[in-house]
């Protein structure tokens, strides 16, 4: 009989719209530079040969509506509003034409970022982990099942800080579509139910400070909110 030295961490469970059943979060993949205008504001260009990714621990998950502390180690804490894909069927080397059949649903997401740490790492050609993968940095709204949402190929995405619009775009401006991302990512990972894909943020990213509230929305998927304590 195997025993553990200490209690294993619980699996994060995300809300699903319209049901009390929860979505166990397995892994979080994030897509970089998936809107042309955001790449330009970050001083880089989109690599159209292939998408690129970074990851966050599943323990970075925090539900929409939470109040969280300003994170340690940063003086430039940024929001990034994103469409999130929730995988519902396992697959490896998935064909683009079959990719959308692996989607359970969609949600609004916030990829919270310690921008100063990310840029310092980028300048030294180091990984972005300190800037991206930290506690309570992957905010998620309730997942809307595909049966209700369909597969969004367009629609308004917006983010507001204390009621002021900071990000506004249309999902049709994604460089790499959801199907293309799933097909490409599955060449390198065996995708499984519970995997989340944050598909990238548009232009307009910026800092937030303690006391501010972030609100976002994606047409057909509802909203998301976060308060910085």
Automatic annotation (TrEMBL):
SUPFAM superfamilies: FAH (SSF56529). Keywords: Hydrolase, Metal-binding, Plasmid. One of its GO terms (molecular function) is acetylpyruvate hydrolase activity. Gene3D superfamilies: Fumarylacetoacetase-like, C-terminal domain. Residues 28-227 form the Fumarylacetoacetase-like C-terminal domain. Pfam families: FAA_hydrolase. This is Fumarylacetoacetate hydrolase. It comes from Tistrella mobilis (strain KA081020-065).
